[in-house]
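Homework help board

Subject: predicted structure for assignment chain

Our instructor gave us this sequence and asked us to write out the predicted structure in token form, then describe one feature. I got the tokens but I'm not sure how to describe them. Can anyone check?
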Amino acid sequence: MEFAKWQGLGNDFILLDGRPERWPAKQLADLASRICDRHFGIGGDGLIFVFKDDRGMVNMRIFNADGSEPEMCGNGIRCVAKYAYQRGLVSQTAFPVLTRAGVMLPKLILDGDRVAAVQVDMGEPVLERDRVPALGVAGTRMIGEDVQVGSERVTATAVSMGNPHCLVFVPDVAQAPVYSLGPLLERHELFPNHTNVEFIEVRSDNEIAVRVWERGVGETLACGTGACASVAGSVLTGRTGRLVRVNLPGGQLLIEWADNNHLFMTGPAEEVFTGRLGAAFRECTFADNGQLAKE
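My token output:
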């Protein structure tokens, strides 16, 4: 079975061309965690299945390195869009992609025959706390709210971009408590589905720097939905304008919160290498206890 390794700003994924239903549902988590293992597998932040459904629409399903299945991934969908175009799954430069968060609309930006970047209409940010979800009064927003995290209190904002994000503004992102507060906020009781966590330094009206503690993964070099959520939170708290360059450890994204209330994300996606899964993945399934067992 062939695979392709892709990355968007260092957020890396293994792409498989096919439906995940080829594996029993209970085994997908084990498959993802083994393939994403950086020592015994290919290595990646996530495993993405790319396929066309019965209507001919491109679909993506992503599984994190720990086997959990998030709703969406901004860096991942840029990789999927470029992959689908280059592999001939689509001929258009703009087309819909179905995700667990709904239909997303990527558009390839060409430089001659080369795909220079991918812009994605990420849709409207979800701010009502019961839809993020974050516990509290339904219909209200969690913006600049004090949250007790262990022995500390932080001021946090909650935004969903199809998946939940908790935003914390810091004076210096390099010194942000990503590894101490990130996992505590990820599984804080406020967030019943757990959450991604962004630590944000505002550098000007049109530039921020962000570090991400990603739900089910840990710190990653970039997060597309997290960049969008960070810009939404920066605008809502009066810190920036609506067109913002987002600096992440893996590179830069351009995010615009347009007049139609949609967030548009523009950034790169690159194929790193291709290969074929070895016998351990081709010829075996996973027993109920997670161990390899011959078919």
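Reply (TA_rk): Your tokens look well-formed. For the description, you could write something like this. Confidence is low (pLDDT under 50) at residues 284-295. That's the kind of observation they're looking for.
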